[in-house]
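Q: Two folds, back to back.
A: First:
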Amino acid sequence: MNITERIKGILLSPKEEWQTIVGETTPIADLYKNYIILLAAIGPVASFIGMSLVGVSLPMGGTFRVPITTGITSAVVQYGLTLVSVYALAFIIDALAPIFSGEKNIDQALKLATYSYTPGWLVGVFALIPSLGIFGILGLYGLYLLYLGLPVLMKSPKEKSIGYTVAVIIAAIVIFVVIGAIS
């Protein structure tokens, strides 16, 4: 798997890319090593640079910067929790599969969680310049990717995809709130 081609495929032609992904037998360790570890680092690194080195301009003059040690600590914690959250989301996707007439398969669920996270990880680059953080909203494209991928990877009926997607999104929100509170 070429990471650049996978990113391009999942973002620009997701229906076709999910069909390719479903047939792949990528071990969990390889998925982490060749994809997750790399992309999950974008947000924490960019956030550290943006908040600790670039800083935020204040209206009354001056620039606020997070202390470097605090920035590094925050980035490391955020990165570690992101790595855990991908697997937690996959576990939830897998656990919910039978409820929505899908097939339990943790490997497929991890691929689904991983590749659905792609837009969110990529928009992390906007944290380099804190005032561009609003563009992080573009990461919501991952919800559409999740919706398209559920029937393909988890073999759930298309008519149950919306409910399945909503259930996964609610679980993901809980995960993100917990991660946000911890980091």
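A: Second:
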Amino acid sequence: MRQLPNIMTASRVPCLFIIAALIAWDTRWAATIAFAVFMLAAVTDYLDGWLARRLGVVSNFGKLMDALTDKILNVGLFIFLLVYPIGKPLLPTWCVFLVVVILVRELLITGLRLVAASSRFILAAERSGKIKTVLQIFVITLLLFVLAARRDWGWDTPLIQHLHQAAYVAFGMATLLTVSSGAGYLVKYWHIFMGEPSPSDKAS
């Protein structure tokens, strides 16, 4: 039971491959199952932290892996949705730039966290970072819902088209927030990235 939060955190990685396989599998109800699996993964993003605090088993491993698995799931799906479904991907070509920007940001922040961890200093997630993760999840939720509606339920109404367009707008907002939160994170912890003493250490 005490390992359940870490198991829930780690489960988001295989969820990426399950969702990708379901999207690539062009058969009835596969897209709906992919949507349901992503919803389950999104719920674990909240439940693992809540359960760890409830059980009193908050750990450095959990803090690092929680942020890392979020990045793997979300960025992995963004990349995948640039290509799939074949012939009519959910993300248009111009979104490649946005995905690259998000990927670079996430790699930089992950690198910063690993450098800090090597010095036994665990960087907690900032509020802005949590909000950008929620917004990224919202974008993927909209995209997978649109795919399920069109492929499985036969819905291609103006509402579904508007939801698809709304996902693009939300994706742009998520990218801006991803960049701004990452910049703030780097500025705040740049001394760790460069191996320098913190401002408080210099003052003392």
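Q: And?
A: The domain at 4-196 is CATH 1.20.120 (Four Helix Bundle (Hemerythrin (Met), subunit A)).
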